[in-house]
């Protein structure tokens, strides 16, 4: 394919002009943050960072071709993170791409809640489990920010596990420097604590279980093309009401957590307290131990499994995640 530079970006030769053109075109197709995306694309294509862009004038022909190729993909709503290959999460950079869910800023609050609890433990009890780990964002953050921790990162998708492994490896030095370790496990988050599964030896020992599970109802197709067309379906959809995986995670967490241990679980802004039994707090309050769970969790059959159930809001004031403690 040949590229006519003058036609693709109007013959503009300065960073300011290229940014103006890119932002205008991204705005026209409804990209939510056109100024940020334009700057990230131009900076990445030119091998620099956003805060150093204006030191790069003029934009040469090779860079203009790279910018145009990336911009064309973003205009078709390929996620920005897939184009640049990374996303920031708390104190780390993660590699992301097709096949793994892109961590969002709101999930940083979920990680923060898990971290606070883990750091309250003595170092010999800093044992955490990240269910549906995806890129490994929460698990790696826990290991680095809670020194002396052992974190089990559980994921079912082979595609996602490729990214988990890549990210754990790239942060191996920082994890080791904190005296922590991350163990990656391929298993179903709803069964991983059952006999014969990967974490059956961990029953009743975990201080924290954390998860950003799939919670979108099957008939609620996301409007954003970046999510609808590019995020893995396994990481999005949680059954007819969106809570199938959540229910399984509540069961797994009740088995793995020590008495009084903390569960932190993300949900949509429509699945908070006001949703009643259609929300995560409501389902958690109603959950009781069946015979199978009672035998593994060492509680009487029929007993409620969760106490201190609190829903928390995100930075926009919307319900976003729930905290609950395994009953003692």
TrEMBL record:
Domain Release factor glutamine methyltransferase N-terminal: start-end pairs: 19-85
Alphabetical keyword list: Methyltransferase, S-adenosyl-L-methionine, Transferase
Database matches in Pfam families: PrmC_N
GO molecular function, one term: nucleic acid binding
GO biological process: methylation
Gene3D superfamilies (alphabetical): DNA helicase RuvA subunit, C-terminal domain, Vaccinia Virus protein VP39
PANTHER family noted in UniProt: HEMK METHYLTRANSFERASE, MTRF1L RELEASE FACTOR GLUTAMINE METHYLTRANSFERASE
Protein name: Unannotated protein
């Amino acid at each position: 394919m040949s590229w006519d530079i003058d036609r693709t970006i109007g013959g503009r030769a300065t960073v300011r002009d290229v940014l103006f053109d890119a932002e205008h075109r991204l705005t026209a197709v409804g990209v939510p943050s056109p100024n940020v995306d334009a700057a990230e694309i131009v900076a990445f294509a030119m091998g620099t960072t956003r805060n150093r862009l204006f030191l790069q004038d003029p934009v040469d022909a090779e860079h203009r071709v790279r910018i145009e190729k990336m911009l064309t993909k973003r205009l078709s709503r390929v996620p920005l993170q897939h184009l640049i290959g990374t996303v920031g999460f708390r104190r780390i950079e993660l590699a992301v791409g097709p096949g793994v869910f892109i961590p969002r800023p709101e999930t940083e609050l979920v990680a923060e809640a898990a971290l606070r609890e883990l750091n309250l433990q003595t170092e010999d009890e800093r044992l955490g489990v990240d269910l549906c780990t995806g890129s490994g964002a929460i698990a790696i953050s826990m290991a680095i920010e809670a020194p002396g921790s052992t974190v089990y990162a559980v994921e079912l998708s082979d595609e996602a596990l490729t990214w988990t492994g890549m990210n754990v490896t790239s942060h191996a030095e920082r994890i080791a420097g904190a005296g922590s370790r991350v163990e990656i496990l391929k298993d179903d988050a709803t069964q991983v604590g059952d006999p014969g599964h990967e974490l059956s030896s961990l029953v009743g020992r975990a201080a924290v279980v954390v998860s950003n599970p799939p919670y979108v109802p099957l008939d609620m197709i996301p409007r954003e093309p970046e999510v609808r067309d590019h995020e893995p379906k396994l990481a999005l959809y949680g059954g007819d009401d969106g809570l199938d995986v959540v229910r399984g995670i509540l069961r797994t967490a009740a088995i793995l957590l020590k008495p009084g241990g903390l569960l932190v679980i993300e949900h949509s802004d429509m699945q908070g307290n006001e949703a009643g039994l259609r929300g995560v707090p409501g389902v958690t309050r109603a959950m009781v131990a069946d015979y199978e769970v009672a035998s593994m969790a060492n509680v009487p059959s029929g007993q409620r499994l969760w106490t201190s159930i609190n829903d928390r809001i995100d930075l926009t004031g919307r319900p976003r995640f729930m905290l609950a403690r395994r009953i003692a």
